Amino acid sequence: MSRAINDVTVRALASVSRDELAAILAGPPDRAAAWVAAAARNGIVEAQAVYGQYLLDGHGVERDVDEAFVWFRHAARRDHPMAMNMLGRCYEHGWGTAACAPVAVYWYRLAARAGLDWGMYNYASALALGHGIECDRVRALRWFRRAAELGHAKSLNFVGSFYEDGWTVDADADLALDYYRRSAQGGDFRGQFNYARLLAERGEIAEALQWLQRVPRTATAAFVVKMRGWLAASPVSAFRTLERTLTANTLTSATPNLTQEPHT
To answer: In angstroms, rounded to a whole number, what is the distance separating the alpha carbons of residues 205 and 259?
Structure first.
């Protein structure tokens, strides 16, 4: 435990105002982490969930997936929805514990039933892919739709895929386009790509190009590689030009602006 964490006393936690705490959390990461850690150690469940995320991300503290798992488990056992979801992520990816897909699904299901959109998405993904649970696309679509109704961008994209490919529903290109559009506007890079792809099929090349240009801002490196392959094979010259630009940017930049998937 760092000295900074020890310096935050119970009296300080009890007397800090809401505005003061907001300023602390928005300030230097190490100070924010010290306060969150102190609150977590004093039994505040929201702080336990947040501190787990700080440890997982290395936000203001040294990254420690084992300790992150411990704090997510503390909060999840006290019915904190996001902590339940993150405990599921730990079990899915083996962060701080042995990977176990069925246990991951157990926690995703609890988070979903608690009303958390990310829990719904992760539970639905497991059902759709048969990962840790028997594949059930009907139930998967039901949960994706519930998350989509809350505006969850990645779930909107997944519902679009169901309608495009005719999974458990009649294929409907117009509905797929609408779901992809809402996903794209919500910031999901897969939704942006799929929306652009269907726009291009309809001959709306200029608008499609605008969305394709947004994808690399938030997409994973692996997804950009796949997109570049699609662009390179396209009969649309503007798309092939974009692929060459992306390739040139990757070759000339030591740190391309490609992020990882969010932990949630």
So the answer is: 27
pTM flag (> 0.85)? yes
Backbone angles phi, psi at 171, to 5 degrees: -60, 135
What distance in Å separates the CA atoms of residue 102 and residue 126, rounded to the nearest whole number? 9
**DSSP H or E stretch at residue 147:** helix 137-149
Distance CA 143, CA 122 (A): 9
Phi-psi region of 170 (alpha: psi -120 to 50; beta: other; left: phi over 0): beta
Domain ranges across the chain: 1-82, 100-149
* Per-residue pLDDT in tens (0 to 9) along the chain, 264 residues: 444 445 687 788 887 788 888 898 899 999 999 999 999 999 999 999 999 999 999 999 999 999 999 999 999 999 999 999 999 999 999 999 999 999 999 999 999 999 999 999 999 999 999 999 999 999 999 999 999 999 999 999 999 999 999 999 999 999 999 999 999 999 999 999 999 999 999 999 999 999 999 999 999 999 999 999 999 999 999 999 999 999 888 766 544 333 334 445
The secondary structure of 175-196 as a DSSP string is HHHHHHHHHHHTT-HHHHHHHH
User: CA-CA distances (angstroms) from residue 169 to 92, 127, 147, 183, 190?
Assistant: 29, 16, 18, 19, 21
